[in-house]
Design brief:
It is a single chain. By secondary structure, this protein is α+β, with helices and mostly antiparallel strands. It folds into 2 domains: 115 residues, no CATH class; 83 residues, Beta Barrel (OB fold (Dihydrolipoamide Acetyltransferase, E2P)), CATH 2.40.50. The chain contains 8 helices and 6 strands; from the N terminus they run αααααααββββαββ. Helix 2 packs antiparallel against helix 3, helix 2 crosses helix 5 and helix 5 crosses helix 6.
Length: 204
Amino acid sequence: MKKSVLLALLFSISLFGFSQKYLVKIAEESCVCLENISDTTNPEQINMEMGMCIIEAAIPYKKQLLKDHDIDMDQIDVYGEKLGMLVGVKLASVCPNTLLRVTKLSNTDYEEEEEEIDNIQIVNGTVTKIEDEQFVIFSLKDETNRVSKYYWLSGIESDIDITSNYMELLNKDIIIAYETIELFDPRIQVYRQFKVISEIKLDN
């Protein structure tokens, strides 16, 4: 399970949960396990223990994970990263302080990366509109029915062929990682904030 997957999920202030209640149970049990990781454990061992905490908490729900998210717990070497992404979103909302502590301990380069990662936010919702005149702009409605615009201005990571299939995301549930950047808007002659996308994933 890659460290970057957990790191990228730490700094969300606008996370919304998945519908299945068992994911909350997995996250809660993982959090209890993570709290028992010692501050003196070496970084390599911490990474291993973090992964084992999530795996052990997820095993009782292997049938649901396979059915709902196509995660085969019997092939965890293949599906470990996908499991980490799925549970990581919940961990960041259930026990953010614990996750922050152990992830910081696990990554010796954390302090150098913190300033860059700190600006990343994650939101999930339904795509209600896609504009593609000059830039691609996704209008996303979250679970509070608030609609916000997210701008595709540069290269983004995605689990689909985004350049060819982005119009197919209309009315789909997705997860967006983004940065809020201040840019000059020539139409109104002022600087204003834009939510610029860095990653898009389907919310299965």
